[in-house]
Amino acid sequence: MTFGFAGLSHLGIIYSAATVARGFQAIAFDPRPGVAGALAEGQLPVREPGLETLLDENRARIHYTPDVKALAECKLTFVTLDVATDAANNSDLEPLERLIETVATHVPDGSSLVLMSQVPPGFSRKLVLKLRSDLRLFYQVETLVFGNAVERAVHPERYIIGCSDPHVPPPEPYGRFLAAFECPVLVMQYESAELCKIAINCFLASSVTTSNILAEICEKIGANWYEIEPALRLDRRIGPHAYLNPGLGIAGGNLERDLSTVQQLAAEHGCDAGVVTAWQRNSAYTKEWVLRRLHRLGLLQDPRRLLAVWGLAYKADTYSTKNSPALALLQSLPHYIWQVYDPEATLEGSESFKNIKRCASALETLDGAAGLIILTPWKEFREIPLVEIGKRLSGTAILDPYRTLNGEAVRACGLNYHCLGATM
Fold it and tell me: Do domains 2-183 and 289-418 have the same CATH topology?
């Protein structure tokens, strides 16, 4: 059975790969010049652990094409274009709407479209009115996580499906697709599924914010968040998989978009979303933890003092710097001198970062630096010998909010270690 995929950004590349890994065939379409051709040659525009291997093992079952007419043989087509957000975290839906219009005119009669791109509540219901009457539309919630997207796509926790009538079984091709992934399938109305995606991210934002608030209090009173965390995971009301890791606020764009959507919906319908505003305010405050600590340590008294930064991406195993704490810090201190390194992420707009030297390795950033700031917890940073860090730094300060390094071992090397949630 052959399924279509339209839109080959992160979402489409990952889900089409997961689909062929389950034994299906896929026609993967993208109208943008060069996108399909590059993927056909094995050039991946996204980085995800396991993705290259997955595609190498299943490349014969996937056909990348810039020709929308190729979807004419697909009775089931997934629309998988990632929806970008602007500086105010609002979605730009125009490219998605153009893609849907193009695809809908070329899929065969009586086929189905599955919309996986994230859209606001109400979008799918309105879209049905614009589509041909012979097409069935489903909204499937994507729950990928940057850095762990392949695992979550190949082995999903559950599938959340929105449709016009939850009591009507899905068409046979879609039913076969869902059954192949051997996970619970939750079917609901369009609006419920669209809001479900937002609800998941709201609960995550709540956990992130609560952990950050309590971690800072730990620092102030001499408690240790990492001693408290195991007790929370053993509480059935919280659970072993809860997100309890302190960090530098909310970043990446997706959570921010969903919080903004909740505020817009609440304002439109007269609901109270004050708690969401509090999460956003706390995120902005927590993102400045490094800046406050640099001031406290006196490392910002002289703009000519060199500082090292490890990590530009908003999280490990991704190249994305959307709302990343690293960029926020660098932009807030444009006149200071920095040496930075990230395995994947790049600095866009070089004119904005004139005092920044991009180094070829993590150790190179340390030469002559008064302090080290680790802003993305990449695995490779944990493997760097601590004695080498101490030798290369001209100062002793290490700011490691995510506890990438072993704090006690760092201190044993005579370095001054600072992390979120504990007084070191």
Answer: yes
Ordered strands of the 356-358 beta sheet: 356-358, 337-341, 306-310, 371-374, 397-399, 416-418
CATH 3.40.50.720 fits 2-183, yes or no: yes
CATH class of 198-286: mainly alpha
User: Alpha-carbon Rg of the chain, whole angstroms?
Assistant: 23
Residue 350 pLDDT more than 70? no
Strand arrangement of the beta sheet that strand 159-163 belongs to: 62-65, 25-29, 2-6, 76-79, 112-115, 136-140, 159-163, 185-189
Question: In this model, does residue 349 exceed pLDDT 70?
Answer: no
Alpha-carbon gap, residue 17 to 25, rounded angstroms: 10
Q: Are 263 and 273 in contact (CB under 8 A)?
A: yes
What SS3 state is found at 372? strand
- Residues forming beta bridges with residue 310, ordered by sequence position: 341, 374
Give the 3-state secondary structure of residue 126: helix
Query: What confidence score (pLDDT) does residue 203 get?
Result: 92
Kindly report the number of other CB atoms within 10 A of residue 25's CB atom: 16
Mean pLDDT estimate for the chain: 93
Domain spans, the chain:
2-183, 198-286, 289-418
Residues in Cβ contact with 178 at an 8 Å cutoff, skipping those fewer than 6 apart: 159, 161, 170, 185
Q: At what angle do helices 325-332 and 289-296 cross, to 10 degrees?
A: 50
CATH class, range 289-418:
alpha beta
